[in-house]
Amino acid sequence: MAQISQISRSSHGAAAVAARTSAQTPVQAPEDRRAALQAAIARIERGGAAAARYGAVPLGLPAIDEALPGGGLAAGVVHEVTGSAAGGFVAMLAGRFTGPVLWCVMTHARAELYGPGLAAFGLDTRRLVIARCASRQDMLWAMEEGLRDPALAVVVGEPDRAVALTASRRLQLAAETGGVTGLILRRGAEDGALAPSAVFSRWQVDAAPALGAPAAGSVRPPSLEDRRAATRAPVAGSVRPPSLEDRRAAAEGARWQIALLRCRGARQEAWSRAWTVDWRDATRDLSLVPGAGDRPAAAGAGELLAG
After folding, report:
1. Helix ranges restricted to H, 152-212
2. pTM of the entire structure?
3. pLDDT value at position 198?
4. Domain range for residue 163?
5. Per-residue pLDDT, 258
6. Which of 218, 203, 186, 196 has the alpha carbon at shortest distance from 67?
7. Residue 255 resides in a domain
8. C-alpha distances in Å from residue 271, one per residue of 71, 292, 305
9. What is the count of structural domains for the chain?
């Protein structure tokens, strides 16, 4: 079992850096200092302090990135993702970061992590460290220790049930301490309202129909083969097994409906919005589905903003 080491930073070194920075900072006029202070307060109130401290990783879609503080997924904080397609979305997010990824799973999990599937979403499995946890308490401990270790880039956890408010606060503080990004993966939809949580953002990502459709934003109009492939895709509830063409279309990528349920510092109008997007394995990027745009999330999403 790999041990996670903690790296502490010298307080004396931090003080020296602060002293040098203070000595080199030019004197500001009172009006400038007041404006800078007001801007800093507004950023903290909007939740942008974490994004300003550790930066943000763009998703590659202006419609979503521009709605998020820092222009992307904030680093050094914890995010929660639920939904039927949460696993692929989390793998895609982890793949956007540079460095080792600690993925914590329960020993009694029904499904194993599938390497080719993770790679298809841009996560190089050579960067992956898997921690198999016998209990939920063990998983929370492993996640917290990982989030405090700046040698890691991302910590993913798949708990068997929702993370309590106190535990989410501990994870959030650990992420802010180590500068490591945390992703709580809750496969499937939650029953009723989401439990209160201290995480930075909460997402719901579900699979959408029409896998293998032409990439959104492409200047190439759908060809006859594209239209034929779309008509061959099995409808929901169909008992017909997928054909070779269906499997080929599915292998090309995925279509998701992404809903931002809550995010500190995000534009208020972005809350409870949903975007239908295509993920392309070949190019490893996201694109909006033509004509779908962004729209209100499914009915009842407003109740999911608690926490």
Report:
1. 165-178
2. 0.69
3. 92
4. 48-234+244-305
5. 94
6. 203
7. yes
8. 15, 17, 8
9. 1
